[in-house]
Specification:
- This is DUF493 family protein.
- By secondary structure, the chain is of the alpha+beta class.
- It has a single domain, classed as Alpha-Beta Plaits, CATH 3.30.70.260.
- The protein has three helices and four strands, in the order αβαββαβ.
- A four-stranded antiparallel β-sheet has the order 2-3-1-4.
Length: 95
């Protein structure tokens, strides 16, 4: 996920989350990153102590790892805060 996602993007996301979800709710994050234990650990640490269920799977050739994270959050602001934290991890792509 690029660091330079605009506030406009996050504003739109927040509006969509408010319209389509009853809060608090479980939220599913999906990320793809180059396979690198340090990067995977960075993402895991962001969701540490949140009760998140984290699943990861390497691509066929092992070059990339997909990470799915399901976590119970109170509101859209918490969803966006985690996206912003994860965006600081080098090479991460948010789906």
């Amino acid at each position: 996920m690029e660091h330079d996602k605009s506030e406009e993007f996050y504003t739109r996301l927040k509006e969509q989350l408010l319209e389509n979800t009853t809060w608090p709710s479980d939220y599913l994050y999906k990320f793809i990153i180059p396979t690198d234990e340090k990067r995977i650990e960075q993402i895991n640490n962001i969701f540490n102590n949140t009760g998140a269920v984290i699943e990861s799977k390497k691509s066929k050739k092992g070059n990339y790892t997909s990470i799915s994270i399901t976590v119970h959050l109170k509101n859209p602001d918490e969803v966006i805060a985690k996206y912003k934290e994860v965006s600081l991890v080098e090479g991460v792509i948010s789906l």
